[in-house]
Amino acid sequence: MVENRPYLNFLTHLILIIGAATVVFPVYLAFIASTHGASDFMSGLVPMLPGDQLASNFSQLLNVGNSVAGAPPFALMLANSLLMAILIAVGKIAISIISAFAIVYFRFPLRLVAFWIIFLTLMLPVEVRILPTYKVVADLGMLNSYPGLVIPLIASATATFLFRQFFLTIPEELMEAARVDGAGAMKFFRDILLPLSRTNIAALFIILFIYGWNQYLWPMLITTDPQYYTAVMGIKRLASVLDGDTQWNLVMAGVILATLPPVLVIIVMQRLFVKGLVETEK
What we know:
This protein has 282 residues and is mainly α. The chain has one domain: MetI-like (MetI-like fold, Orthogonal Bundle), CATH 1.10.3720.10. 68% of the residues lie in helices and 0% in strands. It has helices spanning 6-33, 54-63, 74-105, 111-120, 130-139, 146-150, 157-168, 172-180, 185-196, 198-213, 217-222, 231-239, 248-268, 270-281. It starts with 5 loop residues before the first helix and ends with a helix. The mean pLDDT is 86.
């Protein structure tokens, strides 16, 4: 039963407004900072209204970068981050769904052992195994390369576990019916499992895309060539300028640009994302 009391409505709306303002205000402040000149922040007073340097700041950041900070054009770093995030998301989903399909629908020795070995890797995040991973990548000559950025992050125990749990909810009668109709294993996977997994794939794609986009430690460790810098690395380099001469207008412009792709992906795939999460909970 929902109580309809005026003071409760006022309280819930007040909490909602305060929460929304807490989230939105830093983004607004970053946008305002990106529209002013670099010297506007040296007076000690933070402007609260947009300035007239929006086009010049974003144009300089996207096309020129900041040579003092050692940051290449931000357009290049956005492209690197986009490529890295898409490859990581697609690669994780492809490997995970095939692994889960093999574990659930094929009977082979040590099948459960293989699953639990995959599951146990959930306890080994990138930060824990980063040194041996770096050694392997360096020995394979993949430093300062796109394969080096993507391949070590492309396997996902979480996605394998989620796909396995979803496949276990599919009735066995469906597989038997497909078998009676002459469908082989791959036809069953392609024509039945993949369409049924559409919303789960969409939800995982968003989560894994944001995971790949926000990667900071691994790209910073294996890339010294500005050609392979990512957007998150670029923001750090823009903010870490010697002698404290940081151009905060460019830093905030980079922050605004770096938030746009994940937000666009969520907006475009919002319906499938919510549906996929709800079905996963089932």
